[in-house]
Amino acid sequence: MSAQRINPVHLIADAAKRAMMDYLVMNELLRKTLEDFSQVEISSERKEVLKPLIEYVQGKVDNKEEVRLNFICTHNSRRSQLAQVWAQVSSIFFGLDTRCFSGGVEVTAFNERAVRSLIKSGFVVDHTEGSNPEYRLNYGGEHPIIAFSKEYDHPHNQGGKYAAVMTCTHADENCPHIPDAEQRISVRYEDPKAYDDTPDEVMAYDSRSAQIGSEMFYVFSQISRNE
User: Fold this and answer.
1) Which of 82, 94, 124, 200 is such that its CA lies 20 to 30 A from the CA of 34?
2) What is the pTM of this model?
3) pLDDT in tens, 4-22
């Protein structure tokens, strides 16, 4: 008996159904955070910055291909991690099958200040021990988001071509070539690290997380499913 051929279109459809199921069980606080993001007005300047990312995702959806986004910043500790998490959850909110991950050019750790901001937004978090813990961010779905500091070409990030989304100036200017990236997109954010150990630390991290979250939510809100 010959093996049954698997239709990749059916695989994408099944993955979209799983994403929708994950949305349905998303915890209430996190869903409220995302609904708050939907009320944020994105400036015309930032919409122009986000336009190439929207077009990349839409093109993949139109061609019924897997969407893979690698968010890259120098240390993979703050902005790129926040972008990975919020892009992943936003795609789930809209029922889109998307694989989001992140990396850097140096290995440090997912900064605990950024993690605390995500906890306040509704994620339930546990982690391993060590200098570079592996965080499991549970949002209510079957599979938690895995986050830890790593280089952009770490095995965790491999599996096919992706868009390299550059979230900081240093990495954008000092990584002229990224293997496996079929498109390079610059979406830069200011680093909340500048406020570490100051009275404005919490506000800075919460504000940056909210900015990244609302912009990733906007990106996926613009995608047509074309079903």
Assistant:
1) 200
2) 0.88
3) 333 444 434 444 444 444 5
